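Researcher: Last one for today. Full complex below.
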Amino acid sequence: METLTLDEKIKLLTESARYDVSCSSSGSSRANTKGGIGNAATSGICHSWSADGRCVSLLKILLTNVCVYDCAYCLNRRSNDIRRTSLTPEEVAELTVNFYRRNYIEGLFLSSGVVRTPDYTMELLIKTVRRLREKERFNGYIHLKLVPGADPLLVEEAGRLVDRVSINLELPSRESLALLAPDKSRDSIFVPMRQVSGLITARRDEGRRAPPFVPAGQSTQVIIGATPDSDLKIMTVSEQLYRRLGLKRVYYSAYVPVMVDPRLPPLTSTPLLLREHRLYQADWLIRFYGFAADELLDAGAPNLDPELDPKTGWALRHRELFPVEVNRAAYQLLLRVPGIGVRSAQRIVRARKVQRIRLEELMQLGVVMKRARYFISADGATSGELDLSPERLKGLLLPGKKRRSGPEQLSLFPLETRDVSAITGEL
Amino acid sequence: MAIWRYDGTFTGFLTLCATLVTQGEEPEKIVSRENNQEDLFTSVIFVESDEARGEKMLAAIAARLSPESCRLLLTAFLSETEGVELLLWRYLSFGRTVGANCDRYPAHPAVAPIHRLARAVGREAHSTMGIVRFQETTGGQWYATVEPAYHVLELIAPHFAARCGEMNWLIHDRRRDLAVAWNKAEWRLTTFDLRGVPPLSAGEEAWASLWRSYFASVAIPERTNRRLQQQQLPKRFRKYLTELA
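Model: Here's the assembly. Have a good evening.
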């Protein structure tokens, strides 16, 4: 390895880390300790926004971009000819605390290439967070990457020190993983994921006083568009990760071609940002709106409609359920109305306990009437536009012509742009 | 009906409300500054701020409406919007008739504006917590400048007190010439009209420079989206940001 300045190292190790999209700092309420620095804000806090419009909340960096693995999609793959460098645990700890004091960041998101063995790498990562927690008495948010194949004892040790852990699934099917990441087995990813899930559940039964174990839960990431896997395949996997393993988040990352490889899309292809956006919308519907993956997608239509958001698409396929009467309908049904979100559904339920809600009051409650008007009634009153033909209604619900065409111009981008939203799922 | 005047503090406003309740008065307008033109034609009643009466009023609101109503009142008050006092008074009057159910009428004309203002101020406080940038001065003090749209210093002070309890810090609201200062024991709101930045510690620029490098490297070039960045981080937030100023 060549000798680099700290500044050069930071640049390299950040460029190598930036394709991990998670930046959430929410879900943990770790308190400060006497003489210590930092705490975690339950709602999460964004500190800046980079030129790609993504929020900057954590110092997202690799300990090293040296890697013994050769995953086709990864910039840091062994066979790629890039400059290699690493930071010491002491350097990362010092950097984190000094950025934190200046309120540049909410905490650290530390990952690493695999040096020597998974266990050796995991030990280095643990050494770094241990130094932060114990020597620097840092109580801010830490998100730590688990190394596939690391010893279960190390996984448990890591979980006791940090707020969130994640291990990336990267590809939704066994075949895709074998094709693009020949050094990682599906088991080396699922075993630690299950272990963490079990330990989180066990921790819940120990009562409030027990020491925390990944209080902000675990997350994972799937690459979109590097393999032919369908949206149905992806969302079915996500649904199981949420329902069976209790994951907090699945992140979807449109593949950015950084590598020439016959197994991958060409360098000239552009990232599938619109598809990524639709997957996030479907993900929100599964987590906060009570939808099942097979309500949104099936073998006949295995991919999400690029034209319409998945909730509106579902409503158009189920017009027999509408109009929904806002003064009577169950909360779960209100959530299914296009234009009604978690917040506005909660407000409707609260408000109707003491009064009848009138149609014209719904806007005040946060309902987007431009969409909801075709699907609701209030004490029988409607907008008078419930009997439109399917084609006409779809035309009215399509996004306005004002928006420039092409997925690159998409302005709505649900990637953790506001961490507050993690609570209700509101964008 | 008359114009009622108070000293511009929240305690002063609560004292005024207590007076209105006791005397059974309905104000035409509530103001915090003297305005000679109006004063010529209408009678202006000034109410002296009274800590004890203010506290009592707040306790009464917490009991008869709800603690959440108290929070909403203070947060909306901090918007410093023209005429906010009368809106708050109407919310209070409505609350006195419906009690704890007050916030279940979010569409009611007495309630909706308060919810809207409190939300806006809360959002501003939350954003400000993220964009504060402390700089270490030669004296070992940590100094930050902000220009929030609303008066949010009191709302963000507890956050930084809990988080950075071992630092002597000061956050300067340059729009209002106010500052909130923490001395490792308590925070205080003071008037403060420093222009420019105090002399910085020797290492400060080096850390700032590393942060700028990090910030530039973390963006994915293939996903550049300045419009989205602009939307999330409007110009008014950028003025004192180490990475964008």
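Chain B has two domains: 3-122, 132-238. Chain B touches chain A through 55 residues (CB under 8 Å).
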